[in-house]
Amino acid sequence: MNHVLTALAFASLVAAPSAALARKAPPARSQPAAAAPKTYFPPEPPPAPPQLHGIQYLYGSAEAAALTRQTWRILADFVDEQVASGTHKGVVLAPDSTLANPQFVPCGDKPPAIVLDVDETSILNLGAEYDDLLANRKTFDEDAWDRWEKGGAAYVAPTPGAKEALDRLRDHGVTVIFNSNRAAVNAAGAEAALNAAGLGSARHGETLFLNGDDSRGSMKDGRRQTIAARYCVLAMAGDQLVDFSDLFTTEPNGVAARRATVAYSGIADLWGAGWFVMPNPVYGSGLQGGPDDIFPKDKQWRDPGPPKPPASEAQTEIPAKKAK
Amino acid sequence: MNHVLTALAFASLVAAPSAALARKAPPARSQPAAAAPKTYFPPEPPPAPPQLHGIQYLYGSAEAAALTRQTWRILADFVDEQVASGTHKGVVLAPDSTLANPQFVPCGDKPPAIVLDVDETSILNLGAEYDDLLANRKTFDEDAWDRWEKGGAAYVAPTPGAKEALDRLRDHGVTVIFNSNRAAVNAAGAEAALNAAGLGSARHGETLFLNGDDSRGSMKDGRRQTIAARYCVLAMAGDQLVDFSDLFTTEPNGVAARRATVAYSGIADLWGAGWFVMPNPVYGSGLQGGPDDIFPKDKQWRDPGPPKPPASEAQTEIPAKKAK
User: Fold this and answer.
1) ipTM of the complex
2) B14: which chain A residues are within 8 Å (Cβ-Cβ)?
3) Do A280 and B22 touch (CB under 8 A)?
4) What integer pLDDT is reported at residue A139 of this predicted model?
5) Other CB atoms closer than 10 Å to residue A130's CB: what's the count?
6) Which of A177, A235, A308, B292 sits CB 3.0–4.6 Å from A114 for a disulfide?
7) Inter-residue contact A80 to B43 (CB < 8 Å)
């Protein structure tokens, strides 16, 4: 029975266009309809992705590719301008900083660098996401991910525009440093993945920092301080808030409260000007909540439906009681 | 039975964290588990969103809010710089242009303007998306959307950072023009929505162009030419490729081919420098395809699983045949 449920769920996900697809799309070129779900037991469970839209968008769409190119382009322009003018401004928060009153590690004469998250910022983990989808995983599988970190290098791609931006900045004397929560014990795999994507070379402890390099686990602030002690960090890029500061983890975690943190007066002006965000609707801390969490109460519209017929007309429509 | 299926589907969507959630997240703050689905007939079908991740990301996440702020920030900076320097470069493609060899409508002495898509670019249609979710719509409902265009103004919000950017540019003498595929017959509703979001004033035929203004239906190039005849368009913003040029609709529409168009040599450098993309993993032409379309064949990794025990050990594990 579960197989049938799964088949039904998958068929509806793949077949159903977005409810709002036609809203702004050009005249539809019809997609081949998915085969009708079978009602007998299929030979094996087909994959049942619970959230195909995020995956379709991030790994397949032209729009996400353009958006990612845009982000790399503006990051490179932003850094280039400072390198050319010689006016360096660091963007790593100082240890005594708060989000309401951000202070930055001063640059002094340190050489210019940028600090980048790896997964779904610098590279797309195509192989791991394909495997998750085909294996129909509903929860994170640590062991599978560990094998991916060790052996997946040939199955990644750079995010669109990453290679061009990093090549340009390296040409201009900027050191590219990666700060990832991949495991330090799998450093060779992380180096191999970045090299395979054309974004290397990355060397653990020099231009690659990982979970396990210090005692703070997945918290990245310690590693950011280590990097900022050696370099003037002109830009950071990531797909998660924690790619910019661990302070975000100490803020309230409800949907609305979490969303509000990025508009704090001290922080709002950093997006696109030192802190650069890559799209990721596939996983991460931002994907939480149901309709009542996501949509504010005063925005919860319900379609009233077609206008009701006038009362007199409605009267005539009441079916007469049948004589027995 | 359908109700039970729906309940199961919804419970699994809301309860299941992303398979990769823990990959880069800070130590998890646990969400309350969803109640176990009931196996008897529930009183009414609960909503069963087929694609909650896209919705969680776009309307709820801090990351999408930061990414959208970033895009408005760089658009405003890009335009401001040209206004300040007096070097105007139009970004509307000329009628004889191709994507491979883009040519732009010249600016002459025309006054500076920007051209913006409306839905999920300038405003978030919170009410309509909430209603889609609660009504569990699987396909686009033209009638419901028409009622939304007419009466939804109080239930929208500006995309994060839109108001600040538009206020700044208007202060600097830039005209803000909207080019939307909302229906011309519902112009009053579109004006009301933009005004309610704090992005007005928008006036139909002057600073607001809609589907029905000319004979080309949802194709926006004709309206773009009308606007570019009056203004020097320094930047365009949208969440769909057709918000920049109808030429994208004449390109091959497969996932990989469509994604490749944004990297055409003549086009690749426009993203973030004249053409500005907003995130939308909820609806649109980019959301198509299954695993084999989205993931290139050479990136389709499968987890090999834990290492197999050595042959000798495996031998000993074969259960001896039971004596009868």
Assistant:
1) 0.85
2) 290
3) no
4) 83
5) 23
6) A235
7) no
Q: How far apart are CA A71 and CA A68, in angstroms?
A: 5
Q: Which residue of A has its CA nearest to B73?
A: A272
Nearest-Cα distance to chain B for A112, in Å, is 22
Among partner residues B137, B289, B293, which is closest to A19 by beta-carbon distance? B137
Q: Is the Cβ–Cβ distance between A79 and A234 less than 8 Å?
A: yes
Higher pLDDT among residues B168 and B40, named by residue: B168
Q: How many residues are given for chain A?
A: 324
Nearest to B273 among A73, A272, A302 (CB): A73
* Residue A39 per-residue DSSP state: S
Question: What residue has token string 């191709």?
Answer: B98
DSSP state of A180: E
Q: Which residues pair with B176 in a beta bridge?
A: B114
* Residue of chain B minimizing CA distance to A252: B29
- Mean pLDDT (whole number) for B139-154: 96
Backbone torsions φ then ψ of B152, nearest 5 degrees: -95, 5
Measure the CA–CA gap between A9 and A11, rounded to whole angstroms: 6
Residues of A whose CB is below 8 A from B132:
19-20
Residue B293: pLDDT band (50, 70, 90) is very high
Range from A124-128, A264-268, B257-261 carrying the lowest mean pLDDT: A264-268
DSSP lists the bridge partners of residue B113 as B175, B233
Please tell me the pTM assigned to this model: 0.85
> Which amino acid is residue B272, in one-letter code?
G
State how far residue A189 is from chain B, nearest Cα, in angstroms: 15
pLDDT band at residue B73 using 50, 70 and 90 as cut-offs: very high
A90 and A168 in contact (C-beta within 8 Å)? no
Mean pLDDT of chain B: 85
Helix/strand/coil for A167: helix
CB A115 within 8 A of CB A92: yes
Distance CA A127, CA A282 (A): 14
Inter-residue contact A177 to A116 (CB < 8 Å): yes
Report residue B173 as tokens: 């003498």
Give all strands of the β-sheet with B175-183 in edge-to-edge order: B208-211, B175-183, B112-116, B232-238, B275-277
- Residues in chain B, overall count: 324
Question: How many angstroms separate the CA atoms of A240 and B228, rounded?
Answer: 38
Say if residue B153's pLDDT is above 80: yes
DSSP A127: H
pLDDT at B13 over 50: no
Tell me if residue B28 falls in helix, strand or coil.
Answer: coil
> Which of B60, B255, B306 is nearest residue A289 as measured by Cβ atoms?
B60
Residues paired with residue B21 on neighbouring β-strands, in sequence order: none
Q: Which residues of B touch A128 (CB under 8 A)?
A: 20, 301
Residue B202 DSSP symbol: -
- Which residues in chain B have their CB less than 8 angstroms from residue A18's CB? 51, 140, 282-284, 287
- Which pLDDT score is estimated for B16? 36
Q: What is the pLDDT of residue B166?
A: 98
Give the pLDDT confidence score for residue B182 in this predicted structure: 98
pLDDT of A18 over the 50 cut: no
Cβ–Cβ pairs < 8 A, chains A and B: 415
Q: List Cβ neighbours of B289 (8 Å cut-off, separation of 6 or more).
A: A56, A60, B254, B255
A273 to B73: CB separation less than 8 angstroms, yes or no: yes
